[in-house]
Amino acid sequence: MLLAEMLAEDGDAPWQIGLLLAAASAGSVASSLILGLFADRWGRRRALVACGCLMAAAGVVFALSESFLALAAAAFVGTISPSTNDNTPFSGVEQSILAQSCEPSQHTRVFTFYNVTALVAGALGGLAAALLGLQHLVSAGDAAFALYAVLAAGTVTLFFRLSPEAEARACPAPDTGTIGRQATRAPWRVPANIRRLAGLFAVDAFAGGLAVQTVLAWWFAHRYGATTAQLGLVFFAANLLPALAQLTAPLLAARRGLLAAMLVPHFASNLILACIPFAPSLGGAVALLLIRQALSKIDVPARQAFTAAVVDPEDRTAAASMTSIARSVAVSVSPLVATALLTGALAAMGAPLLLGAALAIGYDITVWRSYRSTFLGETA
């Protein structure tokens, strides 16, 4: 919340702010790729500690320096993210650790609390940023990044305390009794099933990016004349509902199975998204949006559990990281398409929302047809 304002106060031009955010996004993708390919070989705890140290160092640089080159370098290596999503260098390794730390039947429950905790923490971070903006002793941005560095040091301490059980477990190769693919396959050779998952999840992320909050806010303002105050209340509720709704994911997975928990709410949410452009009034459109938002993120813990279930245990870190990268890249491209569709008659029709819904429904159908006969090894 404070990053762009802090950079502007330092005298950076808008293009420099954009370039720094691009460097941060590129660094996150590069770090995710490196950790996904090599963390299991280097040691997961060691990799997480190294990331935490870089994060702390970046916080110190942002708190103390006004040099654009220093800030850009720190943004690239220090996991400075322009959002609070789960597509970070840490997430692939963390999800792999969680997946092997509990029984498969508990994966959805564990990933649910993992994601809800992150969403709540992100909301608290936004509140902390607002409170820092109210004090006038020091720059709010400098104070925020000093706190960022302290919290990063705290994560390093926690990563140091991880049990050795967090490390990757070597799997014997069939019929030989020797160490399997984890030791013999080159780390950059990503298995075909992971590439397929990454492609499918990229389509889903691209579809979701066509209806991101910025696009929705613009469209609601131009289609229905919504005011800034109205949009603020709408998106407060729209961001809170998914966190609460995710708590239903373990129950749904237990009753209907993992694939259904992943696809049914997602499918329903996109049917509702396709109906929003046809709402006759702002009230009706907002009601549909809130229902859509409540359903739209239930699939996240189920998707993470699904990813852990359909790949071999030794491939989980790579799978979580590669699918996260694919989603990050896809969602960064789709707003460009959305803005191109917000012109003339296409804008009035809600073209980005309709296209996003159609692509997401196509993703649901493809995943269902591809994996409906796959044994997922879990019911919750």
UniProtKB/TrEMBL annotation:
Signal peptide segment: none
GO molecular function terms noted in the UniProt entry: transmembrane transporter activity
Pfam families, per the entry: MFS_1
PROSITE patterns for the chain: MFS, SUGAR_TRANSPORT_1
Main location: membrane
Topology of the protein relative to the lipid bilayer: Multi-pass membrane protein
Compartments where found: Cell membrane
Membrane-spanning ranges: 15-35, 47-80, 113-133, 145-162, 197-221, 233-255, 267-291, 336-363
Any one cellular-component term (Gene Ontology): plasma membrane
UniProt protein name: ABC transporter permease
Organism: Planotetraspora phitsanulokensis
